[in-house]
Amino acid sequence: MTVPVLTKEQAPAVVRAAVAEREAIQANVLELDGSFGKRLLEGATLTGETKRRWEATAASLATLWQIYSAYSAVIDQAAQAARGHLGPRELTGITSLLTGPSIQLAAGPAPLAGRDLADSGREDLTVVAAVTRMRRSFGQITEVVSAAEQVWNEMTGKLDTAAAELGRVTPLAASLGDEALTGNLTAAESELARLRGTLSSDPLSLWRGGPDPAAGIVDTSSVDRLQERVAAAATRTEELVRVRDDARRRIADLTTAAAAARAAYEDSAAAWQRAAAKIATEALPAQPSGLADLSTRLAGLDTLLAAGRWPRLASELDEIERELAGAAARFREAERTVVSALGRRDELRGLLGAYQAKAARLGAAEDPGLAERYDRARGLLWTAPCDLTAAADAVTGYQQAVLALGG
User: Fold this and answer.
1) pLDDT for 343-393, tens place per residue?
2) CA nearest to 141, candidates 18, 219, 220, 31
3) How far is C-alpha 71 from the chain's CA centre?
4) CA 51 centroid distance within chain
């Protein structure tokens, strides 16, 4: 198909459009060439998936620059021609430059097995074909560069955060003597170094979801697990530091708590004995058992403190605190129960007296049946030890009999 030669009026506008397109292409290619992702890939010692893809991408970038250089030279020729006299020969030349196969590339001969006899090792492209090829190469290159850059951006922040926390926690942990904690931190440091190595040499191994950066995602699961591990180690370290710093105070508090628990036991035991002298034991809770001797365990806390065995000390402090709190609560509840039983006996005595007075007001004080019920209830309530259940039943029977008189 023959392309019409540009007219004298058309040529300047067409050339200006071609120059503007060339300048836009140049700006984008320069931005790509100087991008953070491209410079990192170019300067790194790559391995694995990233090495394979970057080698192909670097070759595409070199070809892109080759095409651009030849293309740009043709646009410059057309622009120079458009600035001069625009006669028929010049207009034909400009038309040929902008629409014909004016861009010559030294592509090199094809492999001998597939080479055409007339293959000169040179490829001729039109401006449109050159721009199409550069556009395709540009898209493929930016996919790789942008994906790598996105991996670096997302992973670096997380790794730096983990590294900073490790740097803060590791010296503290070293002073605590917890082998398990130290081992966890050492393993976390090894994992941090491994992930930094992967980020430097094979970042695209962490890219998921296809080549399109807009659709793909960075696989941060490994660094997320590392951060969780470091956070757990930091929490444990801070717990042990608090134990170390508060150890003497907590040991003193436990000594005080042990004395309070012993006093609670003695109070509950004395209350039970007083109640057992007045109330039948069937109505009382079991006699409180004694508090285990904690003197050896309390002395052991000082030994652990002196040896700096913070994990074991923390465990012992927590366990003894729980035991003392539970024992003191049991002793106080036992004392409240026996005091309540004594109070119940006194309540029944008062109730019996009140209904005796009511019977007298009703003129039934000498009633033999009532008198017998009264004497039985009074005998039970004033007998030591008192059968509280039988006494309560007797008072209830007397109460009901008096109420029956009142109709």
Assistant:
1) 888 888 898 889 888 888 888 877 888 888 888 989 888 888 888 888 888
2) 31
3) 54
4) 33
